[in-house]
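U., I forgot to send this yesterday:
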Amino acid sequence: MKLAADGVTDLRAVTPAHITAHVAALRGGDSEHSPLSAASAARAASAVRGLHRFAVREGLVEDDASRDVRPPVPPRRLPKALDVSEVERLLAAVDDGDTLGLRDRALLEFLYGTGARISEAVGAAIDDLDREEGTALLRGKGGKTRLVPVGGYACEALDAYLVRARPELIKKSTPVVFLNARGGPLSRQSAWAILRRAALHAGLPVEGPRAVSPHTLRHSYATHLLDGGADVRVVQELLGHASVTTTQVYTLVTVERLREVYVTAHPRALS
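Result:
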């Protein structure tokens, strides 16, 4: 929107309506400009607000005309999650016929079976695992800890690794569960490389918007729990989120999935 075309040549004459119309014009585009995304329009609106705050601070205007104008809200990004069959392909892609394969399988099963962050998995200690009870103590952000159940498949993979592989890897005493080929603690970067290698073998994307990443199994864990009927507050506790608001983004994923099923299955979903 050009203020001069509206007869506005002085910053003091700018009103909230002018700024709102300007933001709307950015989103709608015109014959000279393509429409901006919500994120780009929000950045432009932020620049306008910065100008008006500066003008008030410098005494150029009395009131901030942009104060009550809300910028566009970018669409909330949904977490990337694999479906159950893709997770099974990923886990099956690991050849656990040797020492490192047993470790890799245990790591990926642990990530999906507990919803652990990659840093929580590589930081896990032997004493954090209760193999009889099938639980793990995860040490999360800010020093917070949480006790989570470990799935049956993950328990089996961990037992195989701890009994048959870890003793061969360990060179000196260390409490860390997952070790590298030199016997030291596995790094986050190495854990990511393990995941990427398994994804490649499984034929899953490792580039682009659907790329399998260190957080993918955590996202999949949460999504599959909610798809299976788990309460969002239970999932919040399992993920270690301080606020249920953070967890609720996963409910958007399940709603999208329900919508897809509805559109494909209901005879009158589409006109």
